[in-house]
């Protein structure tokens, strides 16, 4: 293997992939070089290439352990690398946090799990059995004879946190679309609190949220929750004025609520959110809340606020705010209200409660990127390889993390990111979970768009999920739609991570929908999500009409897709009619078909089944049309009815699904 090929391998630059057509595509050397160059490597500098190869390969055998050591609580083995001549030397591990000190007279007789020859010396990796310990991260000192190494030892469970193996039903929502009880134009945490109560009354166990990440207050029309300012911070627009303690006896706030600016929003009933107007009004009200806090807060409340700031100091500092106390106050209030909603879920008997959603990346001009810029590659974005809907591939415009830099400070960036998104919820859905293993990088190469897969330290990222899920008592769902490498599917399944399926895509080779008994068990199944049309829109072909209206397809494409949809509807009817006493046809009402489909899927052994609030509200407009930006009003469509009305209108369907899932039917 030549030096450059070795560096491609060690640095995680992919060699090939299998295209959706089944064709094996091998990346050119020029493409792979460009990926390395995006990581700051001068591929024409032989000395730099040789040095990096040494650091990433041979040098790792000269240390007893890596800087971060994985310790599986299943086999309880610590892997140590030594010169084989050290086998007879004294061995010890000390972990001060646990007051644990483990010693052996020598390392003879232990299993050898790897070997490496350097300068005619054989180095071996041996598996040293240790005692069990609590899940977590610990500072450890490893010694063999006179050689020692300080490492961070990760005590990692076999699986992520689990709830008991029962069938669970939940609700999937885009919180901003929920009809706001206060009339302020965007769904907030008080609306979520009402949904928690409604779901509990229907014996549901969870609410799956859209990403609640911080967006851009100065550019409120940048509304995509999947292209955020920061994934570790919350979007203040979700703060409920009513739920905030500083709304009580607040004369300035009461005056502002009667102002023309706020009343214009309250009296406005539009199909799409005007983020410019809503943001301006809500931030005016936020200022009144903060001013009241500054003037009237008790010492106990100030202490609570200061403690929040202290505990979240590193994350809050990334805001680089001109008015930090105000912005920190908003983060405090958002976190408090999210916690109130989760606690209400648990108090009401919901087994899981809220499930957060983690976007795959952040915007290239946001505070997450700017505060962590050394961790990112240069001029590479993440996206997706060519598929039937985008033959040229997709560039999502999100900067790509450098897999080698991600390891810095014991993966502190990724750990903090997962911690913040598991805080105050009962579960975490990870968008595009393949990113744990590999991401498609998009970059310019000789003035042309190019791309390849780049691989990440999968075992470590997976270990963080396992550890944090136990520390936070949070289940984990991996959105694995599309082409997922077999090793990723296997690792996720054996780690107890729920997969995520859309019924639309669960098909046999002949195109028919999978029978119920073939649907995956340890999975979250949904009929639709934010990237596909709501069911009524799909059944009535409204999504095709919208695409034609916005000139996303021409008349010929419309007729082609119309014919394909008719075939799909017939397949859907065949699936439903196998499980329903209702005799349905293409002329059946969309909600009747939806209700029968939902009841049929309720019989599946799939452990998590989510109903989408948009579907229950008979929405026809999609909340997002993939592949569009400003052509279609993405992330803005508001629900037609209040949450209470939606639940009342679907009472019989919800009761039937609950009966089926709980085994009463």
From TrEMBL:
Family listed: Belongs to the disproportionating enzyme family.
EC number: 2.4.1.25
A GO term, aspect molecular function: 4-alpha-glucanotransferase activity
PANTHER family: 4-ALPHA-GLUCANOTRANSFERASE DPE1, CHLOROPLASTIC/AMYLOPLASTIC, 4-ALPHA-GLUCANOTRANSFERASE DPE1, CHLOROPLASTIC_AMYLOPLASTIC
Assigned keywords, A-Z: Carbohydrate metabolism, Glycosyltransferase, Transferase
Database matches in SUPFAM superfamilies: (Trans)glycosidases
Domain of life: Bacteria
InterPro entries (UniProt xref): GH, Glyco_hydro_77
Protein name according to UniProt: 4-alpha-glucanotransferase
Biological process annotations from GO: carbohydrate metabolic process
Pfam families reported for this sequence: Glyco_hydro_77 (PF02446)
Catalytic reactions on record: Transfers a segment of a (1->4)-alpha-D-glucan to a new position in an acceptor, which may be glucose or a (1->4)-alpha-D-glucan
Name of the top EC class for this enzyme: transferase
Gene field: malQ
């Amino acid at each position: 293997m030549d030096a450059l090929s070795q560096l491609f391998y060690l640095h995680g630059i992919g060699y090939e992939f299998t295209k959706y057509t089944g064709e094996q595509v091998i990346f050119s050397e020029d493409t792979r070089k460009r990926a390395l160059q995006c990581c700051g490597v001068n591929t024409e500098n032989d000395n730099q290439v040789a040095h990096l190869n040494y650091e990433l390969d041979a040098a790792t055998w000269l240390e007893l352990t890596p800087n971060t050591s994985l310790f599986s609580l299943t086999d309880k083995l610590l892997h140590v690398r030594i010169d084989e001549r050290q086998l007879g030397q004294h061995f010890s591990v000390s972990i001060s946090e646990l007051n644990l000190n483990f010693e052996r007279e020598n390392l003879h007789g232990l299993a050898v799990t790897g070997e490496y020859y350097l300068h005619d010396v054989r180095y071996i990796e041996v598996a040293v059995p240790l005692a069990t310990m609590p899940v977590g991260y610990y500072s450890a000192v490893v010694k063999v004879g006179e050689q020692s190494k300080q490492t961070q030892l990760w005590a990692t469970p076999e699986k992520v946190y689990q709830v008991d193996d029962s069938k669970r039903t939940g609700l999937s929502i885009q919180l901003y679309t929920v009809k706001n009880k206060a009339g302020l134009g965007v769904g907030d945490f008080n609306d979520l609190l009402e949904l928690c109560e409604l779901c509990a009354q229907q014996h549901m166990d969870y609410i799956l949220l859209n990403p609640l990440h911080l967006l851009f207050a100065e550019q409120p029309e940048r509304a995509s929750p999947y292209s955020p300012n920061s994934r570790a911070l919350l979007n203040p627009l979700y703060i409920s004025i009513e739920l905030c303690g500083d709304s009580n006896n607040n004369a300035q706030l009461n005056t502002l609520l009667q102002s023309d600016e706020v009343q214009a929003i309250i009296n406005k009933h539009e199909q799409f959110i005007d983020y410019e107007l809503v943001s301006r009004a809500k931030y005016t009200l936020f200022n009144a809340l903060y001013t009241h806090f500054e003037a009237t807060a008790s010492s106990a409340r100030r202490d609570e606020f200061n403690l929040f700031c202290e505990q979240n100091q590193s994350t809050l500092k990334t805001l680089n705010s001109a008015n930090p106390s105000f912005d920190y106050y908003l983060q405090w209030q958002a976190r408090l209200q999210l916690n109130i909603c989760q606690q209400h879920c648990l108090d009401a008997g919901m087994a899981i409660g809220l499930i957060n959603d983690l976007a795959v990346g952040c915007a290239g001009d946001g505070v997450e990127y700017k505060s962590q810029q050394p961790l990112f590659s240069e001029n590479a974005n993440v996206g997706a390889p060519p598929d039937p809907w985008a033959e040229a591939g997709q560039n999502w415009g999100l900067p790509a993390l450098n897999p080698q830099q991600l390891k810095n400070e014991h993966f502190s960036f990724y750990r903090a990111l997962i911690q913040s998104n598991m805080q105050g919820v009962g579960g975490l859905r990870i968008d595009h979970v393949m990113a744990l293993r590999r991401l498609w990088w998009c970059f310019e190469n000789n003035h042309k768009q190019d791309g390849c897969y780049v691989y990440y330290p999968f075992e470590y990222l997976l270990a963080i999920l396992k550890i944090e899920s136990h520390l936070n008592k949070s289940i984990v769902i991996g959105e694995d739609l599309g082409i997922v490498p077999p090793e990723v599917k296997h690792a996720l399944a054996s780690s107890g991570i729920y997969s995520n399926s859309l019924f639309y895509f669960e098909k046999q080779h002949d195109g028919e929908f999978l029978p119920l008994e073939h649907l995956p068990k340890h999975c979250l199944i949904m009929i639709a999500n934010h990237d596909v049309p709501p069911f009524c829109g799909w059944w009535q072909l409204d999504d095709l009409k919208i695409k034609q209206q916005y000139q996303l397809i021409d008349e010929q494409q419309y007729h082609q897709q119309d014919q394909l949809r008719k075939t799909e509807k017939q397949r859907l009817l065949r699936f439903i009619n196998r499980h329903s006493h209702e005799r349905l046809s293409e002329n059946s009402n969309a909600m009747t078909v939806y209700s029968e489909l939902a009841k049929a899927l309720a019989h599946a052994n799939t452990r998590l089944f989510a109903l989408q609030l948009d579907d229950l509200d008979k929405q026809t407009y999609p909340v997002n049309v993939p592949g569009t930006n400003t052509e279609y009003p993405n992330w803005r469509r508001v629900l037609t009815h209040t949450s209470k009305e939606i639940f009342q209108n679907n009472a019989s369907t919800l009761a039937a699904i609950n009966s089926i899932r709980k085994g009463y039917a």
